[in-house]
Specification:
With 269 residues, this protein is of the alpha/beta class. It contains eleven helices and eight strands.
């Protein structure tokens, strides 16, 4: 369902939603008391939450610019979240104005903000699909009406895979199904929460998410690296998110403390 023909579902304000919790951590206004309550409780248990959310956004910016500078002009962002400027299409189209961007998310709040997501450069274009990451056939089919999958596409699932389980969601098979649909030269951009770097805090945060009804699956370095099997990792490889091709703001942010998030970017050859 694209933004142009989608009918917003009723927003469930009785349960927190990860996109709205993330929005609160980023200082956004598109969240409800139930989201703020969970966001504050997680932050109290794991003081890295806010700087982790901000580090994730900056990583997305750097990774998208890297793909654009490599010549990629098509972007598929799944688990889009609530728009926070600069958003992915703004980053991509600043680097390459003719870029085409497709967003996909299942939160009706994000759907209601699709108009902001669809503000494109004059040379480029954007589209939005209201759908769940667990339905790759649907997302790829709808995206194919907008993107040319015979040419490289940059696929981003930033801070998303930790909401997907190994067994119940077949997360590795799911990512593989998306990558299988991409042409050679395509990029895969991922970040994922880990307990490796903050065992106690992340364990508490994961439990709070689960109690709220949101599955949460931190992964170790080998488990995260597995997502890139068969692909060519770009330097510096899989690394804590602050360290992936850092800019001065990222170097400075490292002084604030650890961020228990791994990041990586790979190319399909």
């Amino acid at each position: 369902m694209t933004a142009s023909d989608a009918t917003p579902e009723p927003v469930d304000t009785s349960r927190p939603h990860p996109a709205r919790v993330y929005d609160w951590w980023l200082g956004g206004k598109d969240n409800y008391p139930v989201d703020e309550e969970l966001a504050r409780r997680i932050l109290a248990a794991d003081g890295t939450a806010v700087r982790g959310a901000r580090a994730n956004r900056r990583f997305m910016h750097r990774a998208v610019r890297t793909a654009a500078e490599a010549g990629v002009r098509q972007f598929l962002d799944i688990g889009t979240g609530i728009p926070t400027e600069p958003n992915l299409h703004q980053v991509a189209q600043q680097a390459a104005p003719e870029s085409k961007v497709v967003y996909a998310d299942n939160d009706p709040i994000v759907l209601r903000h699709a108009e902001a997501l669809l503000q494109s450069s004059a040379e480029g274009s954007t589209d939005y699909i209201h759908a769940d990451v667990r339905d790759p056939e649907f997302i790829l089919r709808r995206a194919a009406g907008f993107l040319d999958f015979d040419r490289p596409v940059s696929l981003s699932l930033v801070a998303l895979t930790h909401y997907l389980g190994d067994q119940e969601d077949d997360v590795y098979g799911l990512v593989d199904r998306y990558v299988d649909g991409l042409a050679p030269g395509s990029f895969l951009i991922l970040s994922q929460v880990t307990q490796d770097l903050s065992p106690e805090g992340v364990a508490k945060a994961a439990e709070l998410f689960r109690r709220s009804g949101t599955p949460f699956h931190p992964r170790s370095l080998p488990e995260f690296r597995r997502f890139f099997d068969g692909l060519e990792l770009l330097g510096p490889g899989v690394i804590p998110v602050h360290g992936w091709r850092p800019e001065p703001v990222d170097v400075a942010a490292q002084a604030e403390g650890v961020v228990p998030v791994y990041a990586g970017v790979a190319v399909k050859r």
